[in-house]
Amino acid sequence: MxxxxxxxxxxxxxxxxxxxxxxxxxxxxxxKQRQRLIGHHKQEEDPAAVLAAQTCFDLCDIEALYELFxxxxxxxxxxxxxxxxxxxLGLFGNxxxxxxxxxRIFDLFDSGKDGVIEFGEFVRGLSVFHPAALQPQKAxxxxxxxxxxxxxxxxxxxxxxxxxxxxxxSQLVFSDDIIQLIIDKAFQEADLxxxxxxxxxxxxxxxxxxxxxxxxxxxxxxxDLNKEFRNFESSSDFIEDDIRNL
Length: 246
What we know:
53% of the residues lie in helices and 3% in strands. The chain has 13 helices and 4 strands. Strands 1-2 form a two-stranded antiparallel ribbon. The chain starts with 13 loop residues before the first helix and ends with a helix. 33% of the residues are buried.
């Protein structure tokens, strides 16, 4: 698995990128079922148009995303909802083994906090990774990803936990001293108040000075899903092989 350790322990999004490449061989056939899956909107509103207005995707992109959503939401139980097990199975190929990154991303996508991801939540969550999404939006998502305890701050033990999880997924081993140096370096730069934690404003400033920290917060293939579909319409076998070779 090609996973890269960044200064702040940010998840390597290459795994997500490869999964979402599977969109390229899926069509744009949005069924009537989408009305139930997109979320709660006024009956007279077109749910797809609402999502297009709220995200970086256009209408046909949303239809393509719906095909991926159907695949993920039926991988274990075909109920039109993505469970945590289905989410982890789709992204990491294992529905049983606990994965901190899968847990954190799932929790952030699950804005309703009901233990499942509806289609609207799925699209809004992915929109953060769109190339057109603004840097502050990406930074805010990355902050919440690292705020494991949901305290409103990033603390040293949370950064350590993220780094250790990332190293485990990468099958890498760093000494405790090296991990501590990474944490110390990050907090030396980011913790402007010197109170041992990073608040959202400090994080935004930290990212503004170090924009490369967000390089894994963008999935280029989300920019033009229909173009990808035209280029790779018959490439499902190739994509599956590519995912297995990560």
